[in-house]
Design goal:
Length: about 375
């Protein structure tokens, strides 16, 4: 029913996986009570779907049934019920200011208001995030964060909807969480508020003499191991600011590495390893074969290393990537600039530059002790 309604009435039933913020759907003026009603109705539907799914057998298959939109709705409903309390209001209208405009009220026409149950913990979490990344504007960010919710309820705040969602705990997990927490920190820093929220999920941020990069970007993957660099909530930093005048949100250009996927969901997964699906071996024999040292190929030892040559990291460089002539902008309304990163090193007095054309992928095997323990648990007498 909900999937059909999202197609027939997309304005009344928006796709929550594509909605940027949620607090602007219930912290609204009395003139927008219909918008608030529709939002709360969707929250109730999401809560009911969640309850029904939990009552189903564990063997139930939800493929193609629980879509991204329904999954986002279920998570949002759960977050709303955990973090937001609806209490009776006094009937007085309390204005809420967001994005510099007083357009909302915490009191509904039916004399109810919305209260963030965990706003103190949410504020504390944002402060810990800023401290872990050695935020260069820590003092002004702290002043804003500490009083943000009180100012919001009093109608004196100028925070945006990203920050409102953060205070109400309505931030979806994954890349959305990574995106919102940094956007909220920027909004909580008055001197940086003019740059707005990150236009893309993979944006990095250059502030003063520091830079911060999403964990999946090429600079984060290459420089994430530098001493003194933190790794929190999907962000790597602080790293040195790039050479030049580039400031604010930055989008890097790096192609993906096309590597084969060892296991694909195409019927029998063992076929991807070259194992015929007509095999007659038992699972125990297959496990024993995989664990038999006599079946392993012993690698050759590494060659004797060359004499030690000292590398010293010097700087990050960003070069604007020109757009191809005649290419249409795939994201109208968003900044089209992309930059290619390069790194300068000092190699025994010689300057060496490496251009980062591809986003690297690091592959590592899990510890064998876990696999052995799992096999022992499953088959009892396995080695």
């Amino acid at each position: 029913m909900l999937t059909r309604a999202q197609y027939t009435e997309p304005i009344r039933f928006p796709d929550f996986s594509k909605v940027r913020t949620f607090s602007n759907s219930f912290l609204v003026s009395q003139a927008q009570d219909t918008k608030r009603r529709d939002f709360l109705f969707q929250i109730l539907i999401g809560a009911e779907i969640f309850i029904r799914i939990r009552l189903e057998p564990l063997t139930t298959i939800w493929t193609s049934v629980v879509t991204d939109a329904i999954s986002a709705l279920i998570v949002t409903a759960d977050l709303f019920l955990q973090n937001t309390q609806i209490i009776g209001g006094s009937g007085s209208s309390v204005p809420v200011t967001a994005n510099g405009l007083t357009t909302a009220t915490l009191v509904t026409p039916t004399m109810y208001k919305f209260v963030s149950v965990w706003h103190q913990q949410n504020s504390e979490g944002l402060l810990r995030f800023a401290e872990a990344l050695q935020w260069p504007h820590m003092d002004e960010a702290r002043r804003c964060i500490e009083t943000a919710y009180l100012d919001l309820t009093a109608g004196k705040s100028t925070i945006n909807w990203d920050m409102c969602d953060w205070l109400f705990g309505l931030v979806l997990p994954g890349k959305v969480f990574r995106h919102r927490i940094m956007s909220s920190l920027v909004n909580a820093t008055p001197s940086l508020r003019s740059i707005g929220g990150a236009p893309f999920y993979e944006n990095g941020l250059v502030v003063q003499n520091k830079s911060y990069w999403a964990k999946r970007t090429v600079l984060a993957r290459v420089l994430g191991g530098i001493r003194g660099t933190g790794n929190i909530c999907g962000w790597i930093g602080p790293l040195p600011a790039p050479v030049g005048t580039v400031k604010g949100w930055v989008r890097l250009n790096a192609r993906r590495v096309d590597i084969p996927v060892p296991v694909r969901d195409t019927g029998n997964a063992l076929e991807s390893f070259g194992i015929d699906n007509t095999y007659t071996e038992t699972s125990e024999n297959i496990i024993y074969t995989l664990l038999n040292p006599n079946e392993f190929i012993t690698p050759s030892p590494p060659a004797v290393p060359r004499p030690h040559r000292r590398f010293t990291f010097k700087s990050i460089n960003l070069e604007l990537v020109p757009s191809a002539t005649g290419t249409a902008n795939l994201n109208p309304g968003l900044p089209p600039e992309e930059y290619r990163a390069s790194l300068d090193f000092d190699l025994v007095g010689e300057n060496v530059r490496y251009t980062l054309y591809s986003n690297p992928v690091f592959v590592t095997a899990p510890p064998m002790r876990w696999f052995t323990r799992h096999v022992q648990t499953s088959y009892g007498d396995a080695p």
